[in-house]
Amino acid sequence: MTIEQLHQIFLQYPQVCTDTRKITPNCIFFALKGENFNGNDYASQAVESGASFAVVDNAEVAKENKMILVNDVLKTLQSLSRFHRNYCKAKVIGLTGSNGKTTTKELITAVLSTKYKTVATKGNLNNHIGVPLTLLSIKNDTEIAVVEMGANHLKEIEFLCGIAEPDYGYITNFGKAHLEGFGSEEGVIKAKSELYNYLIDNNKPIFFNADDPIQRSKIEPVIKKYGYSQDNSQYYNIKLVDADPFVKLEVEDITITSQLIGRYNFSNCCAAILIGKYFSLDLKEIKQGIENYIPQNNRSQIIHKNGHHIILDAYNANPTSMKAALENFKEISGDYKIVFLGDMFELGSLAEKEHQYISDLAIAMDFSEINLIGENFFTTNNTLKKFKSFDELRQSLQDTPIPQSATILIKGSRGMALERILDLL
Q1: Domain assignments of the chain as residue spans, ordered by start
Q2: Do the beta carbons of residue 10 and residue 76 sit within 8 Å?
Q3: Integer Cα distance of 57 and 228 in angstroms
Q4: What is the pLDDT of residues 17-64, one digit of tens each?
Q5: To pair with 353 at 20 to 30 A between CA atoms, which of 68, 177, 218, 223?
Q6: Which residues lie closer than 8 Å to 69 by C-beta, 6 or more apart?
Q7: What share of the chain is helix, strand, coil (3-state, %, to 5)?
Q8: What is the DSSP letter of 193?
Q9: Is 103 annotated as a binding residue?
Q10: Alpha carbon of 195 to those of 157, 264, 279, 311: distances in Å?
Q11: pTM score, two decimals?
């Protein structure tokens, strides 16, 4: 079966599923493979559960009814999504970066949705499977698609650009993320810049932070570039007014007060404003989109519980985002400030150095109490409260509850699941 023929079937049944636990009526099930599973083994179950068809790459399974046999299910999913992306008229904005991708994606979507029919990556489904699924969510009436692209190795962004074929692009920043895969900060810059390379090669517009010297140098020769800056009048001016705790900014004499904490979210808001202006939104629409956006999923959430003022930023962490979170926490007001820091993953040989650096930084900021959780932080050289596992932390908090009315920062990598601390307060 050709991709064109499969696409005709998809147009009749425009729902795709890759998990038999989430089958929806009349969807198409794609039997993907993983390290510990083979979707072909569940294709029959998918059809029995309501899928109209199952795309498989096992000839024996394909003998059953409603099976579509292909050479490689994953490659077929990717090819189908690229075909569908070009079949539809939606403009695609590609988005990557070390930190803030998902928040920036959601802010851009919140702004553009005030005027346009917009779809965007769900959650952080931004890899070689998530990007195709996002593209296949585009409808005939979709005007703009905001596609988040993640990577932890070189050439991954290049590959995803080949699927999504973005019309525009934005890189949030270049930070110390996935150093195990990229090898160094230089590797991070090279990998994330693959989005720039695609846009430059195809003469597509680039949005960028003109106050970031790395971004500025990378696209110096580009003609179709649109930047924002706090001070440089050559670019669109947006001023940071305050961030205690919520980011407040000023643009064209209009004040926008977000529901996002931390200076590090200023640039995320700026990107949404800049892109909104490019797509001809007026500032009232932009202001509405940003001010109505409420962060969720453990990303820079402010929570009040049992008299405590809590900043929950436990969705993910790397040295760059950890440093930004600590610097922001230092600036906000609070009489008794407690920090809970969980291990940062995917740092490879740099793990020991980076965890020591973050613990030293936290000590220098002189918080009332600092708690380090995880095997990497446990080996750092200091006299802080250290817990090799979450269970050890749990026992400590049960034995010695924290003081009332504390201001608390919770920050760590996803695998640490530090949101569990909320249940202990």
Answers
A1: 3-71, 88-291, 301-424
A2: no
A3: 48
A4: 999 999 999 999 999 998 889 999 999 999 999 999 999 999 999 998
A5: 218
A6: 1, 56, 57, 59, 62
A7: 40, 20, 40
A8: T
A9: yes
A10: 6, 22, 20, 32
A11: 0.84
| 88-291 CATH | 3.40.1190.10
- CA–CA separation, 414 and 376 (whole Å): 15
Please say whether the beta carbons of 177 and 318 come within 8 A. yes
Two tokens, residue 339: 């920090």
Tell me the three-class secondary structure of 169-183, residue by residue. EEECCCCCCCHHHHC
Q: 301-424 sits in which CATH class? A: alpha beta
* 187 known ligand binder: no
CATH 2.60.130.10 is held by the domain 3-71: no
- How many whole angstroms separate alpha carbon 332 and alpha carbon 334? 7
102-116, pLDDT tens digit by residue?
999 999 999 999 999
| Residue where the block lists tokens 């795309």 | 55
| Nearest of 278, 256, 272 to residue 100 by alpha carbon | 272
Burial of 251 per CB tally in 10 Å (0-12, 13-18, 19+): buried
Among positive and negative, which fits the CA dihedral 410, 411, 412, 415? positive
Q: Which residue has the tokens 């760590």?
A: 412
Residue 255, classed as helix, strand or coil, is: strand
The confidence band for 118, taking pLDDT boundaries of 50, 70 and 90, is: very high
Strands 91-96 and 144-148: parallel
- β-strands 225-229, 236-237: how paired? parallel
342 known ligand binder? no
d(CA 122, CA 120): 6
Which residue, among 43, 87, 84, 86, has the nearest Cα to 66 in the 3D structure? 43
102 is in an annotated binding site: yes
**Is 98 labeled as ligand-binding?**
yes
